[in-house]
């Protein structure tokens, strides 16, 4: 076993799974974190044999489903106040214009915004809270959330894993080169995701009036 592969093999797989679940779960609650970059990195790590691709896919899907569900109930209970606080805390990522754009997407596409939103950075963060604040029936949200989460996590893991295995066969005599591919792949993926999210968000017209979110629920 090459030196880099031996070093990667010292990382406990359970630590990778738990960290991946936590990053994706927290991102799905409405906190900007690099969930997709974490998934790609873990998938590439699986390609080296350090962790199981099944473990990566399951951890990512679980984080997405659980985090989105928690975000849903936060948005349903907190209403507009949740987005006001998020906008103050993360003005660059979750400012009022970003929230309005995400909300218009939900009004236009409904439950499909939850399913396909898993592939768009802005909606991946806000899908749960916005769906809850708009009082989307939870069973509809859960079906779209689970379907999108499994499709996103499983599909991304499988594609990156098999690409990584193919690259490893070509680079088996250059372990540091393999590590460079892992790092470069994560950086390139982050740039592609950012560009894709901006392109999709740009299709939503900015002049449409935004419907108000539900106020905070008082029990």
Automatic annotation (TrEMBL):
The keyword Transmembrane belongs to this UniProt entry's keyword annotation: yes
Membrane topology: Multi-pass membrane protein
Principal location listed in the UniProt entry: membrane
Keyword flag Transmembrane helix: yes
Record InterPro entries: DedA-like, VTT_dom
Record-level GO cellular component terms: plasma membrane
Species classification: Bacteria, Bacillati, Actinomycetota, Actinomycetes, Micromonosporales
Family: Belongs to the DedA family.
Highest taxon, organism lineage: Bacteria
Domain VTT residues, every copy: 41-160
Residue spans crossing the bilayer: 6-26, 38-66, 109-127, 139-162, 174-193
Subcellular location: Cell membrane
Keyword terms, alphabetized: Cell membrane, Membrane, Transmembrane, Transmembrane helix
Species whose genome carries this gene: Actinocatenispora sera
Name under which the protein is recorded: Putative membrane protein
């Amino acid at each position: 076993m090459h030196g880099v592969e031996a070093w990667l093999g010292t990382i406990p797989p359970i630590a990778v799974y738990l960290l991946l679940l936590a990053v994706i779960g927290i991102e799905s609650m409405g906190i900007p974190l690099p969930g997709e970059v974490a998934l790609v990195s873990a998938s590439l790590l699986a390609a080296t044999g350090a962790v199981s691709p099944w473990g990566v896919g399951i951890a990512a899907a679980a984080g997405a489903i659980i985090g989105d569900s928690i975000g849903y109930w936060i948005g349903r209970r907190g209403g507009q106040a949740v987005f006001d606080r998020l906008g103050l805390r993360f003005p660059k990522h979750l400012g009022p214009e970003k929230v309005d754009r995400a909300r218009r997407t939900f009004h236009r596409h409904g439950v499909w915004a939850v399913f396909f939103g898993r592939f768009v950075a802005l909606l991946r963060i806000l899908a749960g809270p916005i769906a809850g604040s708009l009082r989307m029936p939870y069973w509809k949200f859960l079906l779209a959330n689970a379907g999108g989460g499994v499709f996103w996590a499983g599909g991304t893991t499988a594609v990156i894993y098999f690409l990584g295995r193919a690259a490893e066969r070509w680079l088996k005599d250059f372990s540091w080169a393999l590590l460079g591919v892992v790092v470069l792949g994560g950086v390139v993926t982050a740039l592609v995701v950012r560009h894709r999210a901006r392109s999709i968000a740009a299709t939503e017209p900015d002049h449409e009036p935004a419907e108000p979110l539900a106020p905070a629920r008082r029990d």
